[in-house]
Amino acid sequence: MAAENQEVEKLCHEFRSMFDSLRKEVGKVIVGHEDIVDNVLICLFCGGHVLLEGVPGLGKTLLVRTLSSALSLTFRRIQFTPDLMPADIIGTNVIMEDQGTGRRQFQFQPGPIFGQIILADEINRATPKTQSAMLEAMQEHSVTSGGTLHRLPEPFIVLATQNPIEQEGTYPLPEAQLDRFFFKLLVPYSNRMELKTILDRTTTAVIPEASPIVNTEQILEAQKLVKRVAVADHVQDYAIRLVLASHPGGEFAADITNRYVRYGSSPRGVQTLVLSGKVRALLDERYHVSFADIAASFLPGMRHRILLNFEGQAEGIENDDLLNKILEVTPRAVEQDLKTV
User: Fold this and answer.
1) 168-184 pLDDT, tens per residue?
2) Which long-range contacts (CB under 8 A, 24 or more apart) does 297-300 make?
3) What is the pLDDT of residues 315-327, one digit of tens each?
């Protein structure tokens, strides 16, 4: 038993060291945005996808490129445009001729989705028909073409960017696709000191670059380790009640939910809270999830899973404000035992 505990402690120490090394490597290029970088790395080790939203020029695409440089993974970039077709993403069957026999046959030519880190740049500029090509890939990590199932390489993570202010020629992402994103992260402006550092790094002859320091096997092993972190019943129940508080008309619905929310979160929401809580626990040198770990992931894990009703939209209610209110009114512990429910 002691030997097993030592092995687990060693694995957890290696995980923290790897996470910190990645954070520093990305920090060689990306100035500031520490919280954004940490949340992207959390998604990576949870096996989830990330939606980065921010105005142009804040470094969203650069962040994804830098992360791919720090990982020994296959990187693919897809620039989403209105004329992009599903076959441009997943690939298509083409007629190939055998040089020896002269016989022709269909052969599948993989598209750019067959990578491990996928940058979906300006993802909301593609039509709904094209967006549908992403649904199977993001959920099942596979694509189907010509009736044949093709598995995508593991680990597989989609990092998508979108611009919240320039809406001409864009298409709102379907709720089914939004729900497949683990986190939605809002990229803020840089402050005074960060802008100075950006200038020092980008207007001189020396251009910093990230080097690959983590490989596929390390990421897959880390993802397995994350799932081994313990979560107590009362902490898990807190995550469940937070998600149920987003369902209007439900037993745990907050007053603000009943007034302004049309649809709340799916079960993917509570999966997000628990899995990301496990990573946060490991980073804090703990082997069990706390209430604070769950609460820390509530906004990025839920802001894209809430659909406001007409009154909420008319009054300009922000999803983050609504979620903060739910956090405020939902107790962390309840007397009722989950086993008696």
Assistant:
1) 667 888 888 888 899 99
2) 297/42, 297/183, 297/272, 297/273, 298/242, 298/273, 298/323, 298/326, 298/327, 299/323, 299/324, 300/39, 300/183, 300/184, 300/185
3) 888 888 999 999 9
Helix segments in 245-333, DSSP class H: 255-260, 267-283, 291-296, 298-302, 310-314, 319-329
* CB contact at 8 A, 247 and 257: yes
* Three-state SS letters, 149-195: EEECCCCCEEEEEECCCCCCCCCCCCHHHHCCCCEEEECCCCCHHHH
How many CB atoms are located within 10 Å of the residue 57 CB? Answer: 10
Q: Give, in degrees to the nearest 5, the angle at Cα 124 between 186 and 151.
A: 95
* C-alpha distance across the termini of the chain, in Å: 35
Final residue of a domain: which of 196, 228, 260?
Answer: 228
Is position 21 within any domain?
no
Confidence label for 5 from pLDDT (cuts 50, 70 and 90) = low
Rounded to whole angstroms, how far apart are CA atoms 226 and 240? 19
- Find the mean pLDDT for residues 63-74: 83
* CATH number for the domain harbouring residue 315: 1.10.8.80
Distances (CA, A) of 104 to 96, 101, 107, 241: 6, 9, 9, 59
Count of structural domains, the chain: 2
Two structure tokens written together for 154 = 């593991």
What's this model's pTM, rounded to 2 decimal places?
0.86
From 246, 296, 292, select the one nearest 268 (Cα to Cα). Answer: 246
